[in-house]
């Protein structure tokens, strides 16, 4: 019996590969004949008979695999029985799971009596599994693609590492014992970190494995014939583990091991303890090591301790701020690679060459390094996962990812095909015609030219996307001749001229002339400001990398300043910002890497010194300039809630400091969006106030939830009014008064708040450290105030005013709803009922909010003595004027407090509600002046024309006040500009509140 000539079907095999395949067939036939003879002599089963029983479909697969892969062919020639084992176990169609893999290897290692036997078992196990992996990769049964192949190779490497390590620990235990336990009583083992594609779980078919070894704590081994310090023990153990996989024996090798990514590379210790590693990365860690640590993952040994180590190193890898400085390091690394590629003539290398695998990886890892500290969704080792998350985070358009992912898959499939030929680590395209035909067949391409045409298309797309993310922005500006021409025509100043000016290469006369040619109104003053920054102690004492970033930015900054509508103002306002970030040079890199952001910065700073001051105080707001779609489009309340929930969801609940910082950054960023849209004129004044109010409401909801969780964790839940146990929803209200209640918040407005609860007046919380109910709710109120007003690096959230609570500063911080109602019915002054007109629930328990609204309606809708009410309102208004209005008349007036100003309109609305709501309950629905005026018109309680004039006046006055906030001007208007509006307010006031006083105003 022999292997027939037609055993391997040739119908799907390209002609150039038929002859080589027939040669493989002959060698297989000889090997099977020898196996058959040996079986006959030893009474074993012959593999030949089972080979002949393989199905037609399996033999077609075999013809394809053997035509492509010399590695599989050599394996089956040496071990023909393996094919039958692989077929019987189903391994030719589906990968074994991790548990099965480990069981198979453990079974083989049980019989290994020494390290030579260990090496042999590991190598044969790896070769058998790789045969199955290559077979599946080349035949693609259901569920197998490039990602699956890469995951299977990674799982095989991890299995071999863990199996070899566990065997070595047992084998060496009698000689050296075991490491001493940790201080917490847990056992110590070697921690094996997988780096690169192993850490990502995306190894290629014939990849090195990059490793770092570590151990938790110093000490000495115990229980062996000889005790070793942990450093020596783990070093010896690591050396033997490397040899177990990497050493070349008669069976070849299992995995090539590369340890050069460890601290100090080949010159450093092979293994380090956790504290020494943490100290190294904190004090000496370099940018490329951050890049390497993106992929770090515990793959063998003490995986739990490895996770602990990586958690401690996370701040080194992922910065809290947007770290655009990282992109410079990637650019330098890519430049080194490009020089090496050119030197060695490796342009055809599909990994390192233009448009290759590494460029896709750089695109993804650039975003991980820059944004991973803020967008924790990017703190993943898998390139596939990170790439797919970029559109969700708005970092890359979906269409770009839809191109990059399949292009990357093709490049990796090609890499696998090249390595499947001989199980050799290569990414270089073959010169041999037969190998080219094999690779084309592996990728199901018609021929080699067709594959090359597809590859050129893919590499061109990858290079384009890579350049868009990683290319030097200044190079782009200088390469754009048309832009340079437009710039020269508009300003007559090039980037080179601005660079020379910043470097001090111009004398004073030349410097003034340069500013003058760029249309600066005060060239001497602008030059003086620039020189003051350049010669300042802060600049002169900058470290090298920071100064280089500043020097790279300044020409682009000056160019952007010159292109703004008011260059002198823009320069004056933006230089303090630059000064404020000299010690946080990642922001210098951010501006330099994003020229469009510079343009937005000039627009906003030119229009508003308030915005310029905010950004200088909180440079993290520069991040917002990167996304103009959201910069000029504030989020509605629903989106705000969602964004804040996601931001807080990335932070552990017990890390209050980080939560507070997140809240403050969120608030400042969202207010900037509102201000930007205000300046751009894309939002009506009412919408501006609406959005500022939404921001406050969303933050108050979050702060209330944080405070409730904090207190209930410590003290348990308070009793309800009915005697039951409160739930996770706080039975507590935050009531907004004033501008917050009236939905009229401005930039920098305080929050007027009142706290109300509905818990039992007696009783206590049900936790291990119980508190009286009243004390619990008081502490809840204090906690809310603390969270709102605590100072962090990002400032405070809001200033809080609690003076409108019952009995003011002398009253309880938190009232029960019934006590609040009793106070309003029996003790409250008229001005407190006026304040209640602008009160509404802004956060808290929905059912309790309904009861508050009912009580508010009852109080405001009560029938009143109109003469007494009018007297009280007028008296309070006069008292305010005496204290706050302008002391003498002039060309300008106070927009808020002078006669005919905003407060007069507010008092008119409050008087109308208090005097008319008893007959017109529709007036109880709203707390803001505009809708109260609209309701007065709709119910015909005031003439329509009068209501319209009051609304027009209120809008004009508030708009001017908003503008004054943004421009840092006094809140005053020119009397001539507002005369008609003021007169309309004064006329309404006289008609409603001073009918017998003539024109007293």
From TrEMBL:
The keyword Hydrolase does not apply. Residues 332-469, 875-964 form the PII-uridylyltransferase/Glutamine-synthetase adenylyltransferase domain. Gene3D superfamilies: 1.20.120.1510, Beta Polymerase, domain 2, Glutamine synthase adenylyltransferase GlnE, Nucleotidyltransferases domain 2. Its EC number is 2.7.7.89, 2.7.7.42. Residues 1-474 are annotated as: Adenylyl removase. SUPFAM superfamilies: Nucleotidyltransferase, Nucleotidyltransferase substrate binding subunit/domain. The keyword Nucleotidyltransferase applies. It catalyses: [glutamine synthetase]-L-tyrosine + ATP = [glutamine synthetase]-O(4)-(5'-adenylyl)-L-tyrosine + diphosphate; [glutamine synthetase]-O(4)-(5'-adenylyl)-L-tyrosine + phosphate = [glutamine synthetase]-L-tyrosine + ADP. Residues 859-886 form a coiled coil. Keywords: ATP-binding, Coiled coil, Ligase, Magnesium, Multifunctional enzyme, Nucleotide-binding, Nucleotidyltransferase, Transferase. GO terms for biological process: regulation of glutamine family amino acid metabolic process. Its cofactor is Mg(2+). Residues 60-307, 599-854 form the Glutamate-ammonia ligase adenylyltransferase repeated domain. It comes from the Bacteria. One of its GO terms (molecular function) is ligase activity. Residues 494-1001 are annotated as: Adenylyl transferase. One of its GO terms (cellular component) is cytosol. Belongs to the GlnE family. NCBIfam families: PRK11072.1 (NF008292). Involved in the regulation of glutamine synthetase GlnA, a key enzyme in the process to assimilate ammonia. When cellular nitrogen levels are high, the C-terminal adenylyl transferase (AT) inactivates GlnA by covalent transfer of an adenylyl group from ATP to specific tyrosine residue of GlnA, thus reducing its activity. Conversely, when nitrogen levels are low, the N-terminal adenylyl removase (AR) activates GlnA by removing the adenylyl group by phosphorolysis, increasing its activity. This is Bifunctional glutamine synthetase adenylyltransferase/adenylyl-removing enzyme. It comes from Halomonas urumqiensis. The gene is glnE.
